[in-house]
Amino acid sequence: MNTLVSLYNSAFGLLERATDGWLTPTLARLVFAGTLLVYYWASALTKLGDGIFGFLFPSPGAYIQIFPKAVEAAGYDTSQLGFFHWLVVLLGTYAEFLLPLMIVIGLLTRAAALGMIGFVIVQSWVDITGHGLAAKDIGAWFDRDPSSLIVDQRSFWIFLLLVLVLKGAGPFAADRFVLNRKSDA
C-alpha cells in the first residue's frame, strides 16, 4: 500500500509542479472567454443608446435592467431618473465591456476579476430584488438541483473569478508584458 501511495504522490506531485503557476489561470481565462465574455458583451450592447454617442446615452432597456423598480415607479419614462441612475447605468455598461476584455487578454487580471465578482454579486442582487426571481430560480446549495440561476450557476462564476484573483493571469497575458516592462525601467 505504501508503494501505491508513493507512486500516486510522485505522479501527481510531478504534474502539479509541471503546471503550477500557468495551467490553472490560463484555463480559467479560457473558460471565462468561452462561457461569459460573449454573455456580458451581448448584455452590454443592449444598454447602448442610438447613434454614435450611444455610449454616453444608455438605452431605456439599460435602466430597466439595472433599476427595474425605479423605472416602473417613473412610469417607464427614464428621463425622470436622475444623474445617479445615469452614472450607474453608464459605469455598469462600461464595466460589462471592459472587465471581461481585461480578463481575457490578461490585463490587470486580478483587479478585473475582483471587479467582476462585485459585478456578479450586484447583478444577482438586482435579479432577486429588482426583477423578483422566484425561489426556484434563486436556488439553494445542497438541494440536489444544480440548475438554479443564482446560487448554483453564479457560485461557479465567482469561483472561476476567485482563481484569477488568487493565481493571476498566467504567463500568456498582457500582465506579464506590462509588469516585466515596468520592472525593467
TrEMBL record:
Chief site of localization: membrane
Protein name: DoxX family membrane protein
TM stretches of this protein: 22-40, 83-105, 112-135, 155-174
InterPro entries: DoxX
Keyword Transferase in annotation: no
Pfam families in UniProt: DoxX
Domain of life: Bacteria
Organism: Meridianimarinicoccus marinus
Keyword 4Fe-4S: no
Coiled-coil regions, chain positions: none
Keywords linked to the UniProt accession: Membrane, Transmembrane, Transmembrane helix
Membrane topology (UniProt): Multi-pass membrane protein
Record's subcellular location: Membrane
